[in-house]
Amino acid sequence: MQNYLTPNFAFAPIIPDHAAGSRVWDTEGREYIDLAGGIAVNALGHCHPQLVDALARQAAKLWHISNIYTTAPAQMLAKKLTEHTFADKVFFCNSGAEANEAALKLARKYARDHFGESKTEIIACVNAFHGRTLFTVSVGGQPKYSRDFAPLPGGITHIPYNDADALAAAISEKTCAVIIEPVQGESGVLPADAAFLQAARRLCDENHALLVFDEVQTGMGRTGKLFAYEHYGVRPDILTSAKALGCGFPIGAMLTTDAVAPSFAPGTHGSTFGGNPLACAVGNCAFDIISTPETLQNAVNQGKKLQTALALLGEETGVFKEVRGMGLLIGCVLADGYTDRAGELTQAALKHGLMILVAGSNVIRLAPSLLLNDEDLQEGMKRLRAAVASWLG
């Protein structure tokens, strides 16, 4: 097929055509087990009938009305998000990058409103990932994603992940925000230490800075809790969500408190499509399913089964030296003899009818449906075993 899109993506050599649950079929009729979840997006699998119905019903009523107005679906979803989290207010947008952009802008605006113009510094972690806008890619701390777009926005400091001492040394009265992923996703599925997040909360309080949790990938049930911060008992001032929030329909959200939200006064920030009725209708339905104890427990149970099976595969083949993660966000670190070859293994897996991901060049990442059943889990592992065997030759 002729490609008419810009060359910034290296597309896989198949074209997905239709899907259901954790199974995908391409235009040639080949079947795949999906343990990638659309990069942690398809939290309820593909074409969940309740989501399809919610979208169809809203599509027959109202698609878009602009943010001059609010709508019942937007207010309903915001109510659910606030009732189940630390937050009081929600800003809707279209993606994780936009949610993080809003969070960072709000943090600077809040600091300016309350402490003056010099309190602008943002502290982030090395090898973080917060999106692809110029601001968020600069905060992300991965030069490979930002260096070609210089000059970059200033006032950003990076510290090593999970290094509380480095954070204590970096933070000051000039710091307006500290942004952290509770689990670093793109750089290798690295969970935060509880002591690191607790120190971040304490240091932010001492320096009148806002603590921002980027839960674009870890939120909406991915780790077995609705949001990953619940595992740690550390409440942020701002939280960002996207990916699984719409289970495939584009929507992002920034959650914050009544103490912080007023800095986004009318006209300070906006989004043409943010909170549109279609996205919020799907988000409402997705929230109702994901937030049930049954769905969250399935993520915990199936995550344990997957980690156990992956660790066993690593022991038997020598291909993985570590399997880590939370819930159904799992990273398999390649053994020393296979360094930087994660992409090769994902290609081999695809040839064997399995969709998996990379997290950097040295980690295989799995982020399947939170509704993953035993049959698909076992079949996925069977295909991964076959792929590893062929890859090792």
Automatic annotation (TrEMBL):
Q: What else is known?
A: May also have succinyldiaminopimelate aminotransferase activity, thus carrying out the corresponding step in lysine biosynthesis.
Entry-annotated residues carrying N6-(pyridoxal phosphate)lysine? K243
Oligomeric form and interacting partners = Homodimer.
Arranged from A to Z, the UniProt key words for this protein are: Amino-acid biosynthesis, Aminotransferase, Arginine biosynthesis, Cytoplasm, Pyridoxal phosphate, Transferase
Protein's name according to its UniProt entry: Acetylornithine aminotransferase
Highest taxon above the source species? Bacteria
* Cofactor field: pyridoxal 5'-phosphate
A single GO CC term, please?
A: cytoplasm
Q: Where in the cell is it found?
A: Cytoplasm
As its record notes, the protein acts as a catalyst of: N(2)-acetyl-L-ornithine + 2-oxoglutarate = N-acetyl-L-glutamate 5-semialdehyde + L-glutamate
Record pathway: Amino-acid biosynthesis; L-arginine biosynthesis; N(2)-acetyl-L-ornithine from L-glutamate: step 4/4; Amine and polyamine biosynthesis; ectoine biosynthesis; L-ectoine from L-aspartate 4-semialdehyde: step 1/3
Which residues are recorded as binding pyridoxal 5'-phosphate? G96, A97, F129, D214, E215, V216, Q217, T272
Where does it mainly reside?
A: cytoplasm
Can you name the source organism? Neisseria dentiae
Give the source lineage, highest ranks first.
Answer: Bacteria, Pseudomonadati, Pseudomonadota, Betaproteobacteria, Neisseriales
Q: What is its EC number?
A: 2.6.1.11
Q: Which family, according to UniProt?
A: Belongs to the class-III pyridoxal-phosphate-dependent aminotransferase family. ArgD subfamily.
Q: Tell me the GO molecular function terms.
A: diaminobutyrate-2-oxoglutarate transaminase activity; identical protein binding; N2-acetyl-L-ornithine:2-oxoglutarate 5-aminotransferase activity; pyridoxal phosphate binding
Q: What class of enzyme is it?
A: transferase
Q: Cofactor note, please?
A: Binds 1 pyridoxal phosphate per subunit.
**Residues holding N(2)-acetyl-L-ornithine:** R132, S271
GO terms classed as biological process: L-arginine biosynthetic process
